[in-house]
Amino acid sequence: MAYHKGGRGGKKKNRQVQGDEVIRVPLPKEGQLFGVIEQALGSGWMDVRCEDGKIRRCRIPGKLKRRMWMRVGDVVIVQPWPVQTDERGDIVYRYTRTQVDWLLRKGKISQDFLTGGDMLF
User: Fold this and answer.
1) What is the domain extent for residue 93?
2) 48: domain CATH number?
């Protein structure tokens, strides 16, 4: 009898194979923004500088909090709240280093945006 090795089966999402294969990177949907984490506040809250120039206090939902660590300087996707749109939001996704390099190469974000200079374009 053969036993299954490894964790969960199924398709791997967001595979990152360089070379001939295209890297699938999630982009912000309508109403979502790119952001860079500026400060960790504790209890799942972060100050995030968004591409529209505003600094929002964003929370990390529980499913992301348990799955991946967020640090200052990470590039994230922010979903502003319907109420307090300019002040609060949720962090929806965190990009890996490889994905950030891909975003820079494709012109989706700029180096100035990462370093805190000018905004997106």
Assistant:
1) 33-113
2) 2.40.50.140
